[in-house]
Specification:
The chain is an all-alpha fold. The chain has 9 helices and no strands.
Length: about 190
């Protein structure tokens, strides 16, 4: 692992615990380097926040694609919903950070907006492809509009992401209701 990776891991941990306003000094001290090392690798605080956001997205994407990597299209789509809802509802500092940065991409950290837009496009495409895969393998009804189903799943998952403030029992109930609806639809 490189120094850059160590700095990124430290920044993710600190941002998850204390928010993206954490100072460069604290992050550098966690790794045992000077603040200059952070500037060398990330140029600015915005540059570091951007890289943390990208890495958080990569880590989440890896988790859900691994969870939805096996079986027919229907099984994979439902596994994606289950894994995403479980991770979003975990209330871990990592997922609170991901939510914070995702929401800030559209408000106070506009330099993250293009990243969020690209991620959303890839997520929607992945979900649509899972529906199409299910239609090809016979596990999802062929007459369904694959794009409409994929967009609906994506919208529901985005809703689950931002509902972390709600009680976990309510979150679980909503996920179960959505999953039942999706199973009936497919």
């Amino acid at each position: 692992m490189s120094l850059r990776d160590d700095l990124l891991d430290a920044a993710i941990e600190r941002f998850a615990e204390h928010g993206p306003g954490t100072s460069f000094d604290v992050i550098a001290a966690d790794v045992g380097v000077t603040k200059g090392a952070l500037y060398h690798h990330f140029d600015s605080k915005n540059g570091l926040v951007e890289e943390v956001y990208k890495e958080a997205i990569r880590r989440h994407a890896k988790r859900v694609t691994e969870a939805s990597g096996g079986g027919d299209g229907r099984t994979r789509l439902l596994a994606l919903v289950d894994a995403s809802a479980r991770l979003y509802g975990s209330r871990t500092p990592f997922y609170r950070l991901l939510t914070t940065l995702h929401l800030e991409a559209g408000t106070s950290r506009r330099h993250l907006e293009d990243i969020a837009r690209r991620v959303q496009r890839r997520q929607r495409q992945y979900m649509v492809e899972l529906v199409r895969l299910g239609q090809r393998d016979g596990s999802i009804r062929p007459e369904l509009d694959a794009e409409a189903v994929g967009l609906t799943v994506n919208a529901a998952l985005e809703g689950f992401l931002v509902q972390q403030l709600e009680p976990q029992s309510a979150q679980r109930r909503w996920v179960a209701k959505f999953r039942t609806l999706l199973e009936d639809l497919l």
